[in-house]
Write a structure and sequence with these properties.
Blueprint lengths: L1 E4 L7 E9 L5 E7 L4 H20 L5 E5 L5 H6 L15 H11 L3 E5 L9 H9 L4 E6 L7 H11 L5 E4 L13 H13 L3 E3 L9 H10 L5 E3 L11 H12 L6 E6 L1 H4 L10 H11 L4 E4 L5 H4 L2 H14 L4 H16 L7
Parallel strand pairs: 4-5, 5-6, 6-7, 7-8, 8-9, 9-10, 10-11
Antiparallel strand pairs: 1-2, 2-3
Helix pairs in contact: 3-12, 5-6
């Protein structure tokens, strides 16, 4: 293709344009100038360089919506003890995580307080303070009957800078539900503070569905995150189909978001978990990509398939559906980045 520049008369310069690619695979136009147009050649070379650079800078950030970190054995002995009986068998310290993130091309993450430290948030807090542009914290709700967990929740949010809270129903006192006075107080306060509440339904969504519906109905301003597809496996019988339908039906609450995370926990197949493509399709259809977010469940995912491979599995499944590139960008980081706004959108 030939283009003629004649705006700088009497100088007239002819050049051709070819298509090239930068390191991100994005296409841009590279002008091929005649040798005697040195002034224009210099400026258009700068244009090509800027095009390549802007392509790199505009790469959508990949944000992991669900992972854990805990102290190394040495750190636990010195400063950050494990909760008795919850000593980890896997490596989960932050330096190990950062290595895996760099290798996988993951830019940031939401750190969920691990059970290994239970309600002692000091290790995760230290990580958040050390890497404020990389991590956001999700604290663990303490449903103690004396109500002390309510004030502790507010302190973690307002003083230590946590941005989300996790409800683990199996930490509630025996015979009590997340809809008791303590649960409602924390859930309500989370809405007032703009803090999403994550639900871990490890023993099955059907056991906690009524609680989640009641809380969403009574407190519509509180954002909800359903961890790990609410532990719904790809349905193979009528009971499982009913449970998965319940997950889809929760999309009627506009405050509910889905973590397409810890795929190894819900898939019946090895990585890249091909049996989850239909589930992904249904969730994006019902919730929209802007309410779905990828998560790894590091470090548990490492021995299962590898951290980088967990990220790539979601991309593979998106291609199977198929999803648009825009939908995939929302799932791989856009949804959670917009939910928390900073630090990822500004860094």
């Amino acid at each position: 293709m030939a283009v003629r520049l004649s705006s700088l008369k009497p100088l007239t310069v002819c050049f051709s344009v070819s298509v090239s690619r930068n390191d991100c695979g994005r296409r841009f136009l590279v002008p091929n100038l005649k040798p005697n147009s040195s002034f224009i050649r210099c400026n258009l070379r700068g244009f090509a360089e800027m095009a390549a650079t802007s392509g790199q800078e505009s790469r959508a950030k990949v944000i992991d919506s669900h992972l854990h970190v805990w102290a190394s054995p040495e750190e636990a002995a010195e400063k950050y003890p494990y909760f008795p009986g919850q000593e980890p068998s896997l490596t989960g310290h932050v330096d190990f995580l950062l290595e895996r993130m760099e290798e996988a091309g993951v830019d940031g993450a939401l750190i969920v307080q691990p059970i290994n430290h239970k309600f002692d948030h000091s290790y995760v807090t230290s990580v958040l303070k050390k890497y404020p542009s990389k991590f956001v914290g999700c604290c663990l709700a303490n449903p103690a009957e004396d109500g002390s967990g309510i004030k502790e929740f507010e302190r973690l949010i307002l003083e230590d800078g946590y941005r989300a809270v996790r409800f683990n129903p199996y930490l509630w006192p025996p015979g009590q539900q997340m809809t008791n006075d303590i649960g409602k107080a924390i859930f309500s306060k989370a809405g007032e503070l703009g803090v999403p509440v994550g639900f871990m339904c490890m023993k099955g969504l059907n056991l906690h569905l009524s609680e989640i519906k009641e809380l969403c109905t009574e407190f519509p301003s509180t954002t909800v995150l359903l961890d790990h597809l609410a532990f719904c496996k790809p349905p193979m019988n009528d009971e499982e189909r009913q449970i998965f339908s319940s997950l889809v039906e929760l999309s009627r609450f506009p405050q509910v978001y889905i973590k397409f995370s810890a795929l190894f926990r819900v898939s019946r197949k090895p990585c890249p978990y091909d049996d989850l493509s239909e589930a992904l399709s249904q969730l994006v259809t019902s919730y929209g990509a802007k309410r779905v977010m990828w998560g790894s469940d590091f470090p548990y995912v490492v021995p299962e398939c590898g951290y980088k491979e967990a990220k790539e599995a979601v991309i593979h499944l998106a291609q199977q559906v198929p999803l648009s590139s825009s939908e995939l960008e929302w799932i791989m980081g856009g949804t959670i980045a917009h939910m928390f706004r900073s630090p990822w959108l500004s860094s």
